[in-house]
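Handout, tutorial session.
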Amino acid sequence: MKNLKNQEGHRRRLREKFIRSGISGFHDYEIVELLLTLGTPRRDCKQQAKEAIRKFKTLRGVLEASMEELEEIKGIGPHNAFGVKLFQQISERYLKEKILGTIILKSSKVVFDYLYQSMQKDKKEIFKVLFLDGKNKMIEAEDLFEGSLTSSAVYPREIMKKAIKYNAVSLIFVHNHPSGNPEPSDSDKDITEELVFAGNLMQIKVLDHIIIGDNKYFSFADEGLIEEYNLNFLSIKRNKNV
């Protein structure tokens, strides 16, 4: 009984500390502890929180861990992992709603920062399309394809139909490499060129294709490949007109 009162007093002090001064002054493990106690408010989660920081190295590492990875820690189950999962999904929705209607194409890094948390932990490749208006403001973002990217798995026609539906003026493609290495494969390059060609035919501009790896990314636009594919399209078009 005394131990339970001590636990309740400890959690109450953490909550009061947060109400007084916010997150500043908290140790990383204390933040994780607060999240873990959302799902199990009457359990002492201090040791599990410390073990989570040890296992995943940083607070960011814990917050980006999957449920399966969190549950590998003794004492963390579906119930007290709930708080971390809740935080992950609220963060993803908040970031999406925050960026909708705002100018996002200041740089490829802005897109990377927006999507990294949600995409780097996926165990399979996810192909996402960002639909933009004439001022480069995001209208919508959709996951359209899953699995290894091949020309038979990504359908330019479907993407262009969605672009017309949203009245999009331009597009950004994003997909992840679960291996952690963002360098594009030959298939990635071929698909990107096909999509640039399809966009040119429909008068919808492809601004970039970004591949997300482990805390790093590859931008087709930054490397000059989007411009190269546009020039290839113009060259083919001119030759056909001759």
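The second record follows below. Compare its token runs with those of the first.
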Amino acid sequence: MHINVHGLSFSYGTRRVLHDVSFSAAPGELVSVLGPNGAGKSTMFRCIMGFLKAGEGQILIDGADINSIGRRALAERMAYVPQTATPVFNHTVLETVLMGLSGHIGFGRAPKAAHAAAALETLDNLGIAHLKDRGCMEISGGERQLAFLARALVQNARILIMDEPTANLDYGRQHSALERARALAASGYTIVTSTHNPEHAFLYATKVLALYGSRIVADGKPSEVLTEELIEKLYGIGVRLHDVPSNDGSKTVRICLPGGATAYNGVRGA
């Protein structure tokens, strides 16, 4: 499914957060959105999901304006992983994931064995099946983030909107979650995610969007648009980009060193 955003603008009162934002995302793409805190990334995601009504512009899902799509139909097309989520009730991890199937099960109906099996399989793929009977208030923030990711995945929507999905995850789980996202994109999903880590964009994204000053200031392949100058503009810190061999030596991987650090151990500058 395609996302097309045209001239999106949004304000909180008199404070303009997004101004004339336009971009597209297609099946097979993993779009990584970068920008400093307060740049409007989360607001843009909430507009795309229909949680906030755009002040100006248009958001299309496969050519249909989101304002013309009912909430249930929209949930069948798009799933959302929020940046942070504090549960109000201490539902178990399994119950939380099953909530992602509410559109398939129907209001007021109990999940069937097949629904529970799908939820458990998703939890197992993310390495947290052992937490299925634990309350979401009784697990770590990172484990809770994985539970919400599982809830989005089991929804089986072909568009995934993920707002800093790795923010609370340890190093290993960050990369496991992003590997999973990349595999889904390769299978035909449309994925839009945000990060503050340029290396995540280099490693996993097919396209980068950079938000700064309420506008899109870069849109393209990570290797082409994610430059030292752009990263410094976004985050106010000098960096050096370097290409290093991958573990198997089959390709090079771009890394980002802060503070204008120089090359080391024979690593060459980008």
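Points raised in discussion: The two ends are 34 Å apart (CA to CA).
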